[in-house]
Write a structure and sequence with these properties.
The chain is an alpha/beta fold. It has two domains: about 150 residues, Rossmann fold (3-Layer(aba) Sandwich); about 130 residues, UDP-galactose 4-epimerase, domain 1 (Alpha-Beta Complex), CATH 3.90.25. About 30% of the residues lie in helices and about 20% in strands. It has ten helices and 17 strands. The strands form six sheets. The chain has a seven-stranded parallel beta sheet with strand order 3-2-1-5-7-8-13, sandwiched between helices. It is globular, with a radius of gyration of 20 Å. The model has no long low-confidence stretch (mean pLDDT about 95). Bound molecules: NADP nicotinamide-adenine-dinucleotide phosphate (NAP). NADP nicotinamide-adenine-dinucleotide phosphate (NAP) binds next to helix 1 and strand 7.
């Protein structure tokens, strides 16, 4: 197949390009060129913020176009200007209107679509993805809409999925400080598993909307697995949510934070979803241990400040605050 990836130079788009190459497809990546495209692909410079920005890739009929955008205007222009036999659009679980129930399926209510063309900030992320989904669904070719869960493995620049394996591998004391919520539901999908399935979906022209997450697993099991891949016998030490809040430590992401967990009952099932339709349609996910080992390898290469979790000084300060309380 002749596949166009709108993007192809960041975490998932790059992995999709590489997966498509491995399957013998011809791959073109189209982006502004902030980072290089994978070797073996053709790269075309485009700026999707320009109204005719996609004209360099609008001169032929593609077998599949993969889009990772968050901006409805970019997606609208792609659907208007490109000719393809199939669309694959990378969406997110953030489209759902509520996260107060376990393992929701694709027919659960979603947010109202963003009305503008541009997602101004991350507070509009879910609504923007809903609008993008609607635009792609209305295109005159079959479309796979892929609602991804948290992506892990090599290239996770957010640092969320690699924090705990990295912290167990590089402890600052006698224990690793973790959220006091071992049953919190987590799911991590390895970027290469999601990429392989995206190429599979395009190849088979799967027409529909699919959750795509890793298997649901409790946070306590993620932490145990993180310690195992780090070959660490340091204990996990749960820290009550009230202590974390008092110390200004966020949940889920960012710095300082304790990631992969949310202290809000309305968001308890945010990270997980029913991905059985995707599994029936060919999604295969590797064991969590392998995913976290790859995330750790990536974290070990990181230079500069970590984008998620606690720095050494922050973890020591939290331990001191626990001792003082
Ligand atoms: N990370 C997660 O855990 C997670 C979870 C759920 C869903 N998702 C979804 O998964 C996808 C991740 O995709 P990703 O990692 O490949 O993408 P990404 O980090 O969103 O990168 C965007 C890509 O689009 C290109 N781009 C950005 N602005 C552009 C413009 N104006 N014109 C042309 N190209 C432009 C970028 O290259 P240039 O900068 O060079 O232009 C880059 O290749 C996203 O759809 C995200 O919403 C992620």
């Amino acid at each position: 197949m002749d596949i166009l990836i709108l993007g192809g130079t960041a975490l998932l788009g790059r992995a999709i390009a590489e997966a498509a190459l491995r399957s013998g497809h011809t791959v073109t990546c189209a982006a502004r060129g902030t980072a290089p495209a994978p070797e073996g692909t053709s790269f075309v410079t485009v700026d999707r913020d320009d109204d005719d920005g996609l004209s360099p890739v609008a001169d032929r009929i593609w077998d599949a176009v993969v889009d990772v955008s968050r901006h409805p205007g970019q997606v609208r222009r792609a659907v208007r200007d490109l000719r393809t036999r199939h669309w694959a659009f990378i969406s997110s679980l953030n489209v759902y209107a509520a996260f107060d129930r376990r393992e929701q399926s694709e027919d659960s209510p979603v947010l109202a679509p963003l009305s503008g063309d541009v997602m101004e900030d991350m507070s509009a992320y879910g609504a923007a993805k809903v609008a993008c989904e609607d635009i792609v669904r209305a295109a005159d070719a079959p479309a796979t809409i892929i609602r991804s869960g948290l992506i892990s493995g090599p290239g996770d620049t957010s640092g969320r999925s690699g924090y705990y394996p990295w912290r167990f591998a590089h402890p600052t004391g006698a224990d690793v400080l973790v959220p006091d919520d071992p049953t919190f539901p987590c799911a991590l999908i390895h970027v290469d598993d999601l990429a392989e399935w995206t190429v599979h979906a395009a190849t088979h022209r799967l027409d529909g909307t699919f959750n795509a997450t890793g298997p649901t697993v409790a946070l306590g099991d993620v932490l145990t697995t993180a310690a195992r891949v780090a070959h660490s016998d340091v204990a996990a030490r749960p820290v009550p949510a009230a202590v974390l809040a008092a110390q200004g430590i966020s949940a889920w992401m960012g710095s300082p934070s304790l990631p992969l967990w949310i202290d809000d009952p309305e968001w308890r099932f945010f990270a997980t979803a029913d991905s059985s339709a995707a599994i029936r349609a060919g999604l295969r996910t590797r064991p969590l241990e392998d995913t976290l080992a790859d995330a750790l390898a990536f974290e070990n290469l990181r230079t500069g400040p970590r984008p998620a979790g606690l720095s050494d000084d922050e973890e020591r300060a939290l331990r001191a605050a626990l001792a003082a309380s």
